[in-house]
């Protein structure tokens, strides 16, 4: 059995995050990739260049979080504007004015402020945003090991054939060919959704010589309608793996950490308040897993889930994440859905699917007060409990729009208070605090029914069916001491049988 991974399987799934980060429907990047690859082959490009087109288009918006902070400042709702901005032909006065009119929409009394900011930023503001997207995209290509052709394709992704692009004002053949093919295919997918294949073909012909390379646009006009029509009924997830040019890219399993770190940083770029958050959570969770002596496989899974736990954040406007005041009920519901988006993204990939449940449950709480599942106790896997504690502590030590960062000692006290209130697993919270260099307080017992640490150990052994003597041997204590512990456990939890003790342990998530 192979122990390496299909890179396209991983990155196709993660491209859904870039779809959401652009306010688009999932699969848009995958569909664009398929159209671009088909177009590149119709142009009789060498297979190596087809490969650059494939990866450039699949990851065309991997820099989408780079300008989210600036977008939110200028426009208020970066995702709503991003959807319109992506299809706007900057050479069209009508389309440009329509984009400007979207500034501040939905922000109520603050809309004039956003309109003023957008007008003041002008061309310089647009160039800064475009360059941020392109530079981050190129850096991501490098971190993912996709080669110079893909890096250049992503760097040139905002250019126009006529030299009037926002980023570097390159023109004609100075623009990397993968970028020239990718932009036609990506826009075609957008217009196909709006009006069908005929609308996509008409758009390509209209933009030839302006936004688009005329030769690429003409070839698309010849083959595009058939390609889009075929994809309408296709399983695009299977198709994208079939379409990948040879040689198929595979990576060693351990390189999945590098991919996860790159996307963790991409997500955390969404706001200045979250920089380094995912990496910090992964470090804490990984060290806590070591303190709890989890098997290496579980520790690796936890660390990767921690790196990718906030993927779903990109589906929510930066204006929501950076709001300094209370969220509206609608905004809060959007926030509560970000773990759901994370989970669904990871489920798209065979390699990432094992991480999905753990990553998607990082806001669940032991008392059932968390989201998005509303799970409690034993319904929350042990790795997810550990991730939840690490995420909570790390977040408290970072600035947020509505509060300043807590000092480590204050964050430790807050985590302990939440644990005593029943929201976090005591063992996991204690391990996270130790990993963070904090000394957990012993002043108040966080276990249910007033159980002590030793009594929880005994309860676990009782639930597994061990006799008092076996418990004594396991814990290296006398049989009489073991018997006393068992009786104290039974008294505290209101049970007198192993089965009832096991039920109590499962209900409260005390088993390991």
Key structural traits:
512 residues; mainly alpha; Hypothetical protein af1432; Arc Repressor Mutant, subunit A; 3 domains; two-stranded antiparallel ribbon; 26 helices; elongated
Query: Structural class, judged by helices and strands?
Result: mainly alpha
Tally of individual domains: 3
Report the principal-axis shape.
Answer: elongated
Portion in beta strands? under 5%
Which CATH top level class of the largest domain fits? Answer: Mainly Alpha
Number of strands: 2
Q: Could you give the topology of this structure?
A:
Blueprint: E1 4-6, H1 7-21, H2 28-42, H3 47-58, H4 68-75, H5 78-87, H6 93-101, H7 111-143, H8 148-155, H9 177-195, H10 197-207, H11 214-231, H12 236-243, E2 250-252, H13 256-268, H14 277-291, H15 296-308, H16 318-321, H17 329-336, H18 338-347, H19 353-360, H20 382-396, H21 408-420, H22 426-435, H23 453-463, H24 468-475, H25 479-493, H26 498-507
Helix pairs in contact: 1-18, 2-3, 2-9, 2-11, 2-12, 3-8, 3-9, 4-7, 7-8, 8-9, 9-10, 9-11, 10-11, 13-15, 14-15, 14-20, 14-22, 15-19, 15-20, 18-19, 19-20, 20-21, 20-22, 21-22, 23-25, 23-26, 24-25
Walk me through the structure.
The protein is mainly alpha-helical and 512 residues long. It is built from 26 helices and two strands. The protein has a two-stranded antiparallel ribbon with strand order 1-2. The chain has helices at 7-21, 28-42, 47-58, 68-75, 78-87, 93-101, 111-143, 148-155, 177-195, 197-207, 214-231, 236-243, 256-268, 277-291, 296-308, 318-321, 329-336, 338-347, 353-360, 382-396, 408-420, 426-435, 453-463, 468-475, 479-493, 498-507; strands at residues 4-6, 250-252. α2 (28-42) packs antiparallel against α3 and α23 crosses α25 (479-493). The chain is elongated and about 90 Å long. The chain is 62% helix and 1% strand. It folds into three domains: 4-248, Hypothetical protein af1432 (Orthogonal Bundle); 253-446, Hypothetical protein af1432 (Orthogonal Bundle), CATH 1.10.3210.10; 450-507, Winged helix-like DNA-binding domain superfamily/Winged helix DNA-binding domain (Arc Repressor Mutant, subunit A). The model has no long low-confidence stretch (mean pLDDT 92).
